[in-house]
């Protein structure tokens, strides 16, 4: 995959963010800043990524990050640039799950505000500040053997959701926020292409993470069996299924791909009624 640069991963303490850190380290990344609101979890990921790394120059650090707080995001991005020199890849996985299952006429405004703060405000802040940093970076060659493929200043991978593309019953705060996340990604991709910065959005289906297990506790009727009924591949998505997609979007092999909403859903979209 030619992953030899430095990565900034949000939500790297567990789930998809942690898997992304481990995959990047294994595939040859030079450095990773693991950012999470749970600093201890981020530090544990640093240790595991270091053990999994294949680049002899590998270095990883952990930092506290609250993506809903502008100062916190500014400090994390500044730390990434100061400590690692440049941001070649940003994988933005920080998020929160659903807090309940209610129809629109019973949904709580506080739940909507909470989901917007983490997913929408967080994605805006990360995308805006990382884009600004990447635009200042020197242009790197995508593929020295094929100069016609041009150069890159970085790749931003944003974690959206199946709910970024399709409505999910009784989950309006989460669905609304994830729709907005995709809008931010697409707009950033359109604006950043001229600066050789790519932005793509991965939209996973039901992924076996601590967040999903919490959602099963608060969403009435949601069980592993009920979810499997919606998935043609007949298994839950693994964090590593998503991390592998993130790896592709970070790598030069996706150098002509930007602004994409990329489903990793086991075929769920095939079952949607039209």
Automatic annotation (TrEMBL):
This protein's UniProt keywords: NADP, Oxidoreductase
Claim: Oxidoreductase is one of the keywords in the record: yes
Keyword Ribonucleoprotein: no
InterPro entries: NAD(P)-bd_dom_sf (IPR036291), Sc_DH/Rdtase_CS (IPR020904), SDR_fam (IPR002347)
CDD domains hit by this protein: SDR_c
Gene3D superfamilies: NAD(P)-binding Rossmann-like Domain (3.40.50.720)
Domain of life: Eukaryota
A molecular function GO annotation: oxidoreductase activity
Family, as annotated: Belongs to the short-chain dehydrogenases/reductases (SDR) family.
Name of the protein: Uncharacterized protein
């Amino acid at each position: 995959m030619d992953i030899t640069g430095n990565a900034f991963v949000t939500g790297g303490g567990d789930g998809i963010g942690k898997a992304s850190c481990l995959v990047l380290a294994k595939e040859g990344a030079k450095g990773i800043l693991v950012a999470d609101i749970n600093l201890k979890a981020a530090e544990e990921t640093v240790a595991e990524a270091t053990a999994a790394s294949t680049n002899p120059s590998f270095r990883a650090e952990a930092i506290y990050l609250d993506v809903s707080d502008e100062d916190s995001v500014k400090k994390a991005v500044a730390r990434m640039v100061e400590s690692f020199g440049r941001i070649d890849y940003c994988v933005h996985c920080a998020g929160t799950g659903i807090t309940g299952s209610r129809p629109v006429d019973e949904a709580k405004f506080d739940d909507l505000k909470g989901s917007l703060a983490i997913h929408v405000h967080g994605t805006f802040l990360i995308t805006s500040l990382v884009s600004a940093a990447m635009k200042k970076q020197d242009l790197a060659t995508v593929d020295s053997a094929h100069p016609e493929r041009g150069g890159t200043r970085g790749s931003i991978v944003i974690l959206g959701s199946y709910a970024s593309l399709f409505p999910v019953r009784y989950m309006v705060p989460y669905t609304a926020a994830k729709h907005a996340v995709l809008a931010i990604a697409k707009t950033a991709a359109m604006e950043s292409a001229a600066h050789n910065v790519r932005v793509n959005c991965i939209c996973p289906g039901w992924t076996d993470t601590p967040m999903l297990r919490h959602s099963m506790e608060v969403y009435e009727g949601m069980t592993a069996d009920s979810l499997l009924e919606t998935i043609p591949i007949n298994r839950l998505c693994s964090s590593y299924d998503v991390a592998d997609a993130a790896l592709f979007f970070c790598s030069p092999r996706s150098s002509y791909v930007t602004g994409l909403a990329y489903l990793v859903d086991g075929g769920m979209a095939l079952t949607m009624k039209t």
